[in-house]
Amino acid sequence: MFFEGSEKKIEVIVTPATPSLRSLGKPFWEEMVAKANAEILSSVSNDYCDAYLLSESSLFVWDDRFLMLTCGTTTLARSTLHFIDSLGEEAIAFATFQRKNEYLSHLQASSFEQDLQALREKLSGVAYRIGHLDSHHHYLFCSDKAFSAESSDATSELLMYHIRGEAADYLRSDNQSCAGVRQLLALEEMLPEFQFDDFLFEPFGYSINGIRGKEYMTIHITPQESSSYVSFETNLDLAAQPIDIFARLLAILNPGSWDVIGFNAQLDTRGYPEHLCLGSCSLSLEQGYNVGFSHYQQMCHEVLIPESM
Amino acid sequence: MFFEGSEKKIEVIVTPATPSLRSLGKPFWEEMVAKANAEILSSVSNDYCDAYLLSESSLFVWDDRFLMLTCGTTTLARSTLHFIDSLGEEAIAFATFQRKNEYLSHLQASSFEQDLQALREKLSGVAYRIGHLDSHHHYLFCSDKAFSAESSDATSELLMYHIRGEAADYLRSDNQSCAGVRQLLALEEMLPEFQFDDFLFEPFGYSINGIRGKEYMTIHITPQESSSYVSFETNLDLAAQPIDIFARLLAILNPGSWDVIGFNAQLDTRGYPEHLCLGSCSLSLEQGYNVGFSHYQQMCHEVLIPESM
After folding, report:
1. Could you read off the pLDDT of B291-308 as tens digits, one per residue?
2. ipTM value
3. Single GO molecular-function term (chains A, B) (predicted)?
4. How far apart, in whole angstroms, are the C-alpha atoms of residue A227 and residue A136?
5. Which residues of chain B from 111 to 150 reach within 8 Å of chain A, CB to CB?
6. What is the CATH superfamily name and number for domain B8-145+152-298?
């Protein structure tokens, strides 16, 4: 019962001359999502943002930008190519396409190298792999047009692997509910006034989008024992929150290892469980983004259980 | 300039009624090696063993057993199927087929699952994955026939990732030689009276086989910066050696992480560099083998260098 939780991600900022992306309407975004082999399950909106919950992750659309995350064996590069074809390359001010290392990369429809080759036929950019191939690593493509990011344009991601303990047990149980998961993760407490939209998958799995003004958060949970994965992503200024959200999620979900990826993010590791930071990287992009990647491991030995095949 | 160093491995013990495997002759073993898309480069022999150095790793043939290791994108499962077809399933007393996790599994000709499916059509057995998919892991298939291993039938493997320092620099340099690598690794000192056969590949890479009576050792080095890998394997009783061979190799090659795999092996971690054992497993097979797998990481933080793509 394997499901690939690891996400692919595309984020695009359009030029000021481009009409509002929200005005493109739901059929446009349905088509975008379909290109990745996903579908829209539900949505919430406020004055700034339309947040779509997908069959495989999330889509957030603001007037000047969008963010789409998809997991499983989705073909997100095809959505990206479709967007460029639809609006024209000149509409794009800045774009990134990213892939986390997958649990089972050979089951994916394409490799990052193949995605990169297709993207570069439509959009010029730089690309990197951060991290060793035999450990957690992250692939990043960024357009190389002149662009200057606002310093407040920050994104923080926490990717948790091999969750353990009571919360993990609950997320693998038959009697869970959306309200129960929100409470388990203390989401209402940590993220007051957020408008949430969540979904519990059969037999397992949970997704939630939340928006508050221009701010967003999203969590995706793949709880299956041998390949559990939970991702949290937000554009909140985490340093300005009353609660240390990453530390709290780590304490609740107790992952064996986790990665933190930030774009201009202020991150504080003091509340993390006792850990070894196996590796970290700081990469400055010309457009004013500082990309950080760090891979953490709990400071304890694990007895590995052989998995019968 | 990527090369997959991670090996696949088949080891077969034949029944007493089976003629000597050495008497099958070189053309038989050439065909076996060709099935994996490799070729024989050279060989050494003594009264007990024929040791073949391959274009991609090694083959050792004794009267009652053989061991074949191949790396790159070789198709070792096809060699295994060919052997079973040639000698008949009833000639097999015990067989294991193993694969280490690859750096780039999506470039392989087949997945372990696919190999397993093909093998099980000819030979019944149990199979396991040991270790998490997002970290170092090992795949193991073993025949499930009645068989009783001799307690002296031990194998020890040391797999080193991301070698660093002077020895790594030498192995990536233009001016290396076979004698220089043997000296670098202190092989004559650690393994006296062994008959060696080694080969330096262009532009990089080194393989050596060594035999002494019924004992064998083999080392394969893929030094390339972003995916370096060095494997050492032997049936020596390591606990009985005057020099702690694993500790010495770790000190010389200074890998960022390493795995130890043993079949009935007595292993001592006291001489290892300061490390965290991320996970370990002990698995008892009915045929009298205790399989151990441990994944170690140097106890230090690594600054990751983004790799341009």
Report:
1. 999 999 998 888 999 999
2. 0.88
3. adenosylmethionine decarboxylase activity
4. 13
5. 111-113, 116, 126-136, 139
6. S-adenosylmethionine decarboxylase (3.60.90.10)
